[in-house]
Amino acid sequence: MPVLLDLFISFFKIGAFSFGGGYAMLPFIEDVVIYEHGWLSATEYIDILAISEMTPGPIAINSATFIGYKIAGFTGSLVSTIGVVLPSFIVVSLLFYVISRFKNTKVVEWIFQGIRPIVVGLILAAFISVFNNTVADIKAVFISITVFLLVYVKKINPIVCILIAGLLGIILY
Amino acid sequence: MILNLFITFFKIGAFTFGGGYAMIPIMEREIVENKKLIGDEEFTDMLALAQASPGPVAVNTSVFIGYKIRGLTGALSCLLGTVLPSFLIILIIAIFFNDFKNLAIVEEIFSGIRPAIAALILSSVVIMLKKGDNLTKRISIAVIVAVLVGFLDISPVIIIIAGALISLIMNYLKIK
Questions:
Q1: Do A11 and A86 belong together in one domain?
Q2: Which residues cross the membrane (chain B) (predicted)?
């Protein structure tokens, strides 16, 4: 199979079958990229994870772009990235269409009533996981509290907060 | 308007470190509070649907919000805006930096950003909890969900579907 088609299909599968986003996608990506195709060694894969953590954007897209480029240059990165995004786009389009069509029915309202309070819990779970993985020393605690006060009490824009935190990182570490 | 959406989501994409959830506080500020393109409740609904759909949560959320604000063209420009920053940055790193992750200054900057992301996500939780009534009930549900997902490793998709079903059954029984 031509390598571009192979890349497209593999990342399409990753996009289509990974639920829960972010870290939930990792085992699936690992499986396809390392074991199924041997596109990366385990060490190279860990390097990509490290780079993904240091760069913005969803990890699925970061790895698709990186692996695509490594295997087949710019076209490879383009094809892989489109592949990983396309299932999301198709599913969301269908879902949005269905929901807009039945928006004012009781059933849709009931469904949302049930899931609205859950969303906050999911975000809380994300906070616990990020906090456990990142806030490891007293400097990190300091940065965390400072940023919380800036964004919540002082209403500073989160993007500005990220820039300030980066600066604090250079000063403190 | 379309260009505006693209730029907004490009900004969001460029500053989303540490996975999809890190994007929520930025989106909330840019789209709900500042530009008022979408209401609080709609925003929460879109987040829930994005969680339940396959693929990166950041991508799903931006496509949903794009549709909501400006139909198909809106969805496409939000998608492009969200994806483009990571695509370009990774491409540049893949082409030029063999040793990006070993640059000392990069490591320092990210030692600062990582704990900040935790704080930003927590602020979203507090902001979302403060909106609406029946605070005790919502806090209890949030804590239960967080324990199920965070400590018992239950998939968010299952919890969302279960929540929808429970609500459907309870409402149906109420009517009968």
A1: yes
A2: 6-27, 74-97, 109-129, 141-170
